[in-house]
Amino acid sequence: MRAPCPLLLRLWEQEACERLRDAFDEALGGMPDGVAVRRLVLRASPGPALVELACHRDDLLVVGYGGRNRLGYAVHGAVTRYCMAHARCPVLTVPPPELIRELRSWRHHWRPEDFAVPLAG
User: Fold this and answer.
1) What is the total count of domains within the chain?
2) Is 61 left (phi over 0), alpha (psi -120 to 50) or beta?
3) 32 and 49 share a domain?
4) Residues of the chain whose pLDDT is less than 50?
5) Quick check: is 119 in a domain?
6) For a Cys staple, 47 with which of 5, 70, 82, 113, CB 3.0–4.6 Å?
7) Alpha-carbon gap, residue 119 to 81, rounded angstroms
8) Contact 77, 48 (CB under 8 A)
9) What is the pLDDT of residue 42?
């Protein structure tokens, strides 16, 4: 839908904010101290939106790179390449971890349970 109802927009934004907070918690143990972090959720084309938000020379734009198949690349476009070509600040590209890169080549739909480690005892 191009223009969903305002209620759905609010619900989607709330869910996206929760997912963003949870991602920081899982990856970094929470928001880092001593670093200015601005969490923002918006609906837009990702490449231009990221470049517009990281518009100062002292900003650092961090984007993921690699790990996508040809279909995903065609559907989603080249967000990382767009950012690298148009950003007015440094762009740090982060490749996927080696384990994920190896697993993506398998034809299997991974679930969180596949990575669970049994408790001792």
Assistant:
1) 2
2) beta
3) no
4) 1
5) no
6) 82
7) 42
8) no
9) 82
